[in-house]
Amino acid sequence: MLLFVIIFVETGVVVMPFLPGDSLLFVVGALAGAGLMNYPLAMALLTAAAILGDQCNYSIGRYFGPKVFQWENTRFFNKNAFNRAHAFYEKHGGITIILARFFPFLRTFVPFVAGVAAMTRSRFTLYNIVGAAIWVCGVVTAGYLFGNIPWVKENLDKIIWGAILIPGLIVIFGAIKARRAAA
Known about the structure:
It is a single chain. This protein has 8 helices and no strands. It is mostly helical. The termini are far apart.
């Protein structure tokens, strides 16, 4: 139950991007591989937590989005930026939602922004389900298959740090590249 809550809150509450996601799923898989957890049950519950969390986060964004629209071109809201975000999510939102699952901080913010940008709920839900299934099943299965290899056990802390830092560096590099291209 605690694992369900952690995955739900990490994906479902926009202010909680620091909770463990990938590393937690990998460890759950390793524990299942060692026979300490039920593998199919863990995958089903954690996939449900990821789906429900993103739906909650999207709903929060949809709720606050219209309230922000009342601020027309203030410091906190720019109608033109909203229109660009909405167009982006309608065109590239699906792949963004799926790929964001594998980037710790983006995983928390993308569904919220999809809600604020008024991405169609049916499209969001489809890609949310696909992304959650790929993310949870993929990372739990990796832990299940590789988590009990002696080298992995000995270097688990380094693997966890790599799972946090590498996606973070990719996001930072992409942001720098986008900023340079815009300038």
